[in-house]
């Protein structure tokens, strides 16, 4: 914990994963006091405790690294979980973040008080009061399970709890979900289990990790308009993969990036090798037997639920922050209206690697958090009143578009002071009128 400065003058950062570390570094650079808190025994977030150890990133190291802290030259194009953890640990050491960090410290409640501060309670019973709360608790921890008609009596494993291929030994496995985690687990189960099927409710866009010898996320296409990106990626798919139906997979009914695509062709290769069998959506289950919507059946010892996660903030009072269909209803990606001192960072996902986005974004947010001290109204309230700001409708973010918006935001940020003065004056006038009317 930071020494010599009252917590009333500090912000608390909840979560020491990639986003929490970036925010901590940006606040330190700007001279904003903070405590960095995590329930885990160290930094790294999901890369420390939330992924199977044979996992690799799906976006390249250039698309994933902090823009001001490159990954080592000897790292491969797609580093492993252990390499990602060592990179994040080195970043925290290089930026001197451990001096402000506390680990094995779980936040169980954080709420605003009548004095405009935030009361934060911890699992060990300690209570502190902070100037503000910066939530960076990630989006890969609150497990979402499928619902079945009927009762399944075999083993049900969420992808979050997958550790290593030995969990599939001598088992007939059904994987539900065809995203990046579902693909990895289906491929492992196909190699190390007795058998593996994969059930898809709808089609996915499978993008090759590389094209013409380069990582796909490093190609110079990501700054183009979205319709051109989609056209180019469809051409790449046609050349390198072909029609998904040739692999027994359904064609996607949504546009690329309307949902998160899956990177890599390992599943397609496993299907060709006969190690994984595609199945449609599940109709019902009965014991260890699963009946699919096409009438076919299968018997399974284990179902792997690669069905994603819920976006939740269990330590915040219920109803304090609105979340619709896993999309947090905040302005500017982090600022809820009507709440001073609360910032929700990192709940969204950059669709081709967080690195190009999180460094400039954390620098902007640090500047805005410092600016809040000079404003009478919450940042989210000021942004809500702007016709240029709208609530998000998706958790997927276009990094290059966001980078352009971040550069523009630095130029127009001073205008928030003028808006704050006008709105505060208007609120005072309305309050005076209401008081006069009440007296009359």
Q: Overview of this structure, please?
A:
The chain is an alpha/beta fold. The chain has two domains: 7-141 and 310-424, FAD/NAD(P)-binding domain, CATH 3.50.50.60; 145-307, FAD/NAD(P)-binding domain. The protein has eleven helices and 27 strands. It has helices at residues 18-30, 46-49, 61-64, 81-94, 180-192, 226-240, 266-272, 355-371, 379-384, 399-412, 415-439; strands spanning 11-14, 34-37, 101-102, 107-112, 118-122, 127-130, 132-135, 142-143, 150-152, 155-158, 172-176, 195-199, 206-207, 210-211, 214-215, 262-263, 277-279, 282-287, 289-292, 297-299, 302-305, 309-310, 323-324, 327-328, 342-344, 349-350, 396-397. A five-stranded parallel beta sheet has the order 3-2-1-7-25, covered by helices on one side. Strand 1, helix 1 (18-30) and strand 2 (34-37) form a beta-alpha-beta unit.
């Amino acid at each position: 914990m930071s020494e010599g400065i009252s917590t009333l003058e500090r912000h608390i950062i909840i979560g020491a994963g990639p986003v929490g570390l970036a925010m901590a570094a940006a606040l330190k650079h700007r001279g904003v006091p903070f405590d960095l808190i995590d329930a885990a025994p160290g930094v790294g977030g999901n890369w420390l405790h939330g992924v199977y150890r044979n996992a690799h990133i799906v976006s390249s190291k250039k698309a994933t690294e902090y823009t001001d802290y490159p990954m080592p030259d000897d790292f491969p194009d797609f580093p492993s979980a252990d390499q990602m953890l060592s990179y994040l640990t080195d970043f925290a050491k290089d930026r001197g973040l451990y001096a402000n960090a506390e680990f094995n410290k779980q936040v169980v409640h954080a709420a605003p008080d009548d004095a405009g501060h935030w009361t934060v309670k911890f699992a060990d019973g300690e209570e502190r009061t902070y100037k503000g709360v910066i939530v960076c608790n990630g989006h890969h921890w609150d497990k979402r399970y499928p619902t079945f008609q009927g009762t399944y009596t075999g083993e049900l494993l969420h992808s979050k709890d997958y550790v290593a291929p030995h969990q599939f030994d001598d088992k007939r496995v059904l994987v539900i979900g065809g995203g990046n985690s579902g693909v990895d687990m289906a491929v492992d189960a196909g190699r190390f289990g007795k058998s593996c099927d994969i059930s898809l409710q709808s089609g996915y866009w499978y993008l090759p990790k590389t094209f013409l010898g380069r990582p796909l996320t490093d190609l110079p296409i990501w700054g183009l308009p979205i319709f051109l990106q989609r056209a180019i990626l469809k051409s790449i798919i046609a050349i390198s993969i072909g029609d998904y139906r040739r692999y027994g997979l359904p064609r996607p009914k949504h546009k690329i990036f309307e949902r998160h695509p899956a990177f890599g062709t390992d599943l397609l290769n496993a299907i060709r090798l006969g190690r994984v069998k595609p199945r449609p959506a599940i109709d019902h289950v009965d014991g260890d037997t699963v009946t699919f919507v096409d009438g076919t059946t299968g018997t399974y010892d284990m179902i792997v639920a690669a069905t994603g996660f819920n976006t939740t903030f269990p330590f915040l009072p219920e109803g304090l922050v609105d979340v619709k269909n896993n999309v947090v209803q905040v302005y500017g990606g982090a600022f809820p209206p009507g709440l001073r001192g609360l910032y929700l960072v990192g709940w969204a996902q950059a669709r081709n690697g967080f690195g190009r986005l999180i460094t400039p974004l954390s620098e902007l947010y640090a500047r805005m958090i410092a600016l809040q001290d000079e404003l009478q109204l919450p940042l989210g309230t000021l942004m809500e009143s702007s016709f240029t700001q709208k609530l998000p409708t998706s958790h997927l973010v276009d990094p290059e578009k966001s980078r352009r918006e971040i550069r523009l935001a630095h130029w127009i940020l001073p205008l928030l002071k003028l808006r704050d003065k006008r709105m505060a004056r208007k609120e005072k006038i309305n309050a005076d009128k209401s008081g006069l009317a009440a007296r009359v």
